Amino acid sequence: MSKLTKKMMLMRNNIDYKKFYHINEGILILKKFSTKKFNESVDVSIHLGIDAKKSEQNIRGYTLLPHGIGRTIKVAVFTNNNKYIKEAISANADFIGLEDLAEKIKNKKINFDIVIASPDSMKIVGQLGAILGPRGLMPNPKLGTVTEKIFETVKNTKIGQIRYRNDKNGIVHATIGKINFLEKNIKENLNSLLLSLNKIKPSQSKGLYIRKIFLSTTMGAGLKIDQSTLN
Q1: How far apart are CA 144 and CA 132, in angstroms?
Q2: In angstroms, rounded to a whole number, what is the distance separating the alpha carbons of residues 44 and 67?
Q3: Which of 42, 46, 162, 203 has the fewest Cβ atoms surrounding its Cβ within 10 A?
């Protein structure tokens, strides 16, 4: 059995894992126990009242967080349309191309966080399914990553647009900022995500839709958040 670190002991002695924390108190606790070695991400896990085994209840979506996620996002754009290429350049996309970009990805020559594709490029992008699929990077219209609005999509991605989908247990996981963010900025980012989730609630989902919300940091514990303390 591995030995508990000093930080883990402090968390165990100071956190009530059965309690539903006020959002303000929860953020303060995460800040208190955050590591000083690096700026940890703030992550949220949202347990939804959906049946993930039924395709019509699965959700995919995206939202623009008002304060971003606190890190630089590298964007790869698949297109050979001159208009889209110019838009991608104007929006500061990191990688732009088609067959040549596909080869770079196959040979692991570039690192990126998001893939955006124009509709006419999907024949080429589809060939990368085995590489992009497992990483959750395959462009999809429901996630806004197969689009003709190249400039807008790249720009929004760069400044804080996140994409989300539920896992097999009906839980949505997302990063909503960094622990050095102001408390109100973390709350506003979380509220933005919750608003987006509510907008795409499946009509087949009955009863309580957002069941539980857990807030955590990269190296920290997960705290249950009292939903009544959120907007």
Answers
A1: 16
A2: 15
A3: 203
Q: CA triplet 74, 76, 79: central angle to 5 degrees?
A: 155
| Pairwise CA distance, residues 115 & 136, whole Å | 10
Which residues of the chain have a pLDDT value below 70?
1-13
Query: Within 10 Å of residue 213's Cβ, how many Cβ atoms?
Result: 24
> Under the phi-then-psi rule, with left for phi > 0, alpha for psi from -120 to 50, and beta for the rest, what region is 228?
alpha
Per-residue model confidence (pLDDT) at position 1? 46
With beta carbons less than 8 A apart as the criterion, state whether 47 and 170 touch.
Answer: yes
pTM: 0.86
Q: Report pLDDT for 167.
A: 95
> Which domains can be identified in the chain, with CATH numbers?
16-68+161-229 (3.30.190.20), 75-159 (3.40.50.790)
DSSP 138: -
Q: Identify residue 24 by its one-letter amino acid code.
A: N
Given a contact cutoff of 8 angstroms between Cβ atoms, the answer to whether 139 and 115 are in contact is yes
| Structure-token pair, residue 228 | 């009544």
Per-residue pLDDT reduced to its tens digit, 90-141: 999 999 999 999 999 999 889 999 999 999 999 999 999 999 999 989 999 9
